[in-house]
Amino acid sequence: MKTLLPTSTAGSLPKPSWLAEPEKLWSPWKLQNEELIEGKKDALSLSLYDQLRAGIDIVSDGEQTRQHFVTTFIEHLSGVDFEKRETVRIRNRYDASVPTVVGEVARQQPVFVEDARFLRQLTKQPIKWALPGPMTMIDTLYDAHYKSREKLAWEFAKILNQEAKELEAAGVDIIQFDEPAFNVFFDEVNDWGVAALERAIEGLKCETAVHICYGYGIKANTDWKKTLGSEWRQYEEAFPKLQTSNIDIISLECHNSRVPMELLELIRGKKVMVGAIDVATSAIETPEEVASTLRQALRFVDADKLYPSTNCGMTPLSRRVANGKLNALSAGAEIIRRELSGK
Ligand SMILES: [Zn+2]
C-alpha cells in the first residue's frame, strides 16, 4: 500500500433498511430467494459506494451478504446441525443457544468467493475480506463430535485456509480473521490459537490480518467492559506470540478504550490497524479526536505501518452514523498525513 496511513474498517457496515432491520445484530432478511440474492448484491455495491465516497482506502463488502460474522460462515459447512441446539457460554460472557457439531466438519462449496469476485469487479481499490477465526468459531458451537476445542479449531483452520486461498485467487488483497476470543482465552491463544491461525493462512501470498477487539457495542459487551477495571491489558497476553507469528497485520480496538497504548510496543514491526472510531456509541467522532488517537498510536507504531481503522464492525449503528464515522476517520487520518509531511 503506497498511501501513507491507509484507512479501512474492521468489517461490517449497516445494511439498508429494505434488506434487513437496521441497528440490530442477527437481523432477519426482509427479502427471499432471487430477490434476496439481488438485494445482497445491491447492498454490497451501496456499501462500497459509501466507503469510496468517504475516502476509505482499503474497502470491504461491508459484510452485506452475511447475517452474522461467525454463524453465516458455519452455516455453509457440513458437520454442524443448526436444529440441534445446546446452551453454552460465549466468550465466558453470556449464554446462547448454539448449533451442535455432530460429525466431521467440511466445506462443501465456497462460501464468500462469489461475493469477493463481485466486489473485485466494482473497484480497483485494495480489498480486505473478513473471515471468522478458528478459536472464535469453536466458541459459538457445542461440540459433540471432536470433544476437543483444539482439534475442532484445527479442522476449522484447514477449512478457512481453503476459503482464503480462493478469496486470494478472486483478487482479495488482505484476508482478515476475526478473533475476539483471543481477548478471553489467553492460555489457549498461546497453546494453539495462534498456531491454528497460522494454519489458516498457510500458503497465502496476499496480506493477512487478525482482528482482536472487545466486541460490538451490544449490552453484553459493554457490561463486560465495565468489569475490566481502569486498564485493559488483555492484549498483553497474545501480543508476544503474535509478534513472532506470520500474520502481517494486527487490528485493534484503541479509541475510547482503556487499552494502554504502550502495549502496541509488544507488536513493534507488525502493521497495526488502529481502531480510531468507537463503535459502541452513536456520537460521531470529530476528525481531531481521530487524529488524537492516531497520534498516540504513532508513539509505538511506525508511520508506514499504521492503518487507521474502526474499533470493530459497525453493523449495529445507523447508516447515517456509520457514514459520519467513515468521514471522520478519513478526515482524521488526513490531519496526521499532513503533520507527517510537514505541511
Ligand atoms: Zn471486532
Automatic annotation (TrEMBL):
SUPFAM superfamilies: UROD/MetE-like (SSF51726). Its EC number is 2.1.1.13. The keyword Transferase applies. InterPro entries: Met_Synth_C/arc, Met_Synthase_cat, UROD/MetE-like_sf. It is an enzyme of class 2 (transferase). One of its GO terms (molecular function) is methionine synthase activity. GO terms for biological process: methylation. Residues 5-329 form the Cobalamin-independent methionine synthase MetE C-terminal/archaeal domain. Its cofactor is Zn(2+). Keywords: Metal-binding, Methyltransferase, Transferase, Zinc. This is Methionine synthase. It comes from Phytobacter palmae.
